[in-house]
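Researcher: Please translate sequence to structure tokens.
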Amino acid sequence: MKIAMMGSGGVGGYFGGRLAAKGYDVTFIARGAHLAAMRQNGLTIESGLAPLHLEPAKATDDPATIGPVDIVLLSVKLWDTAPAAQSIKPLIGPDTAVISFQNGVDAEPMLVEMVGARHVMGGIAQIGAKIARPGVIEHTGTMQRLVFGELDGSSSARAEALLEACTKSGITAEISAEIVKTIWTKFVFLVGMSSVTSLIRMPIGPIRQDPDTRALLLNVMREVVLVGRKKGIALDVDFAEQQIKFADGLPATMTTSMHHDLERGNRLELPWLAGTVVKFGRELGIDTPYCNAILGGLKLYADGKPR
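Model: Translation complete:
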């Protein structure tokens, strides 16, 4: 199986590294210091679960040099989706699958429009990982899970092949026959977690212990559920309450990539998370006061630290 990782940060670097370590033909598409470090020293995954060092690591900044592949795993930041979709076109053969493991709910419609519906599958990644330094991925905790499937719910040989590769590589993975709903279930939790950890500038531990910040997290997720159900996604009415219980079982130090980006003064995925909920709410005639407040409270940081 030939795989291209379009984006080689926490998600792409970790899962691509696991697959490559088991002998799968993986090429990492990266840029800057991270690319240079992988070319010179390989890729290192620091993890309490199973650390590894992959050397050599096949890495490039030009997808056109790779040729057609079986699967493209997309994990770039959401604002890079359109340019990434354009740049991966040389990777796409007749049966190539393109799977977004990005945040949010906007990537799949955009990919369908740009590369064609027959090539696009849906997916979610659940992991706490980031680039600790160039060429090094830091995995925190033990969660490392991929869920993927055809957008129409059908079974496919390409999904089964990826599942087999993940299983052999020690990656927790499963195929979903309801991948669009699965993407929304992650979206509910992610909007809540990213919004509240970033606004409060703290990890989940103290947030879930304080009654006021706990209520804020719950109410943000309730708004996402309300919007999703209005859009026809079969989320349980009490899904937000289920997710707050899930949050109670997370490590107290767990936070989100958006919180990390905020602390570093980087650009935020805010417009595609709480911002998307606000946009959908306006389109559907649903009030989203909590997500509106999150958007207002963080918007001046959305393009990076204000000068």
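Researcher: Any highlights?
Model: The radius of gyration is 19 Å.
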